[in-house]
Amino acid sequence: MLSQSSDSNLPEKLARHKPEVREAYARYRATGDVEAVQIVILAMVRDHLPKPSDAPITDEQRLIEDLGYDSLAVAEVVFAIEDTFGLRIETSEIMQISTVGSLKAFIAKKLGPQGA
After folding, report:
1. What are the structural domains of the chain?
2. Burial 46-73 (b: 16+ CB within 10 A, else e)
3. How far apart are CA 72 and CA 108, in angstroms?
4. 78: number of CA atoms within 13 Å, CB side?
5. Distance between CA atoms of residues 32 and 115, nearest Å
6. What is the DSSP string of the chain?
7. Which residues touch 36 (CB under 8 Å, ≥6 apart)?
8. Distance CA 92, CA 58 (A)
9. Are 84 and 13 in contact (CB under 8 A)?
10. In Å, what is the CA distance from 54 to each residue of 47, 78, 109?
């Protein structure tokens, strides 16, 4: 469970997510754990689905063709990720992201090696 100090560092966008998502974010912030980032990104992808669903989301799924995103929805999820992780992502970089897996890999690369 997150401590009060962890809660105060939690981005507003994650406050309404399940505890495991908030804990994954806290673990990433504390340790740089890339697997924790993957949990947060997946939750954000689900949060921005054009047609909400509880169906599993896999790395192979294409954001536009399989999940129903349009270019605006892709941009919105990327902007939410930028805000959450303090990143700067160029429009040209967004255009290269086509699948859930490519989004996860791109963000992990963008964050680079993180220390505690």
Report:
1. 4-111 (1.10.1200.10)
2. bbbbeeeeeeebeeebebeeebebeeeb
3. 22
4. 27
5. 6
6. ---HHHHHTS-GGGTTS-HHHHHHHHHHHHH--HHHHHHHHHHHHHHT-SS---S---TT-BTTTTT---HHHHHHHHHHHHHHHT----HHHHTT--BHHHHHHHHHHHH-S---
7. 24, 25, 27, 28
8. 24
9. yes
10. 10, 21, 28
| pLDDT averages per 10-residue partition of the chain, 116 residues | 46 84 93 91 93 92 95 90 92 91 93 61
d(CA 24, CA 1): 10
Whether 49 contacts 70, CB under 8 Å = no
Contact (CB, 8 A) for 34 and 44: no
Question: Which amino acid appears at position 5 of this protein?
Answer: S
Distance CA 33, CA 37 (A): 7
pTM (whole model) above 0.90: no
CB atoms within 10 A of CB 12: 8
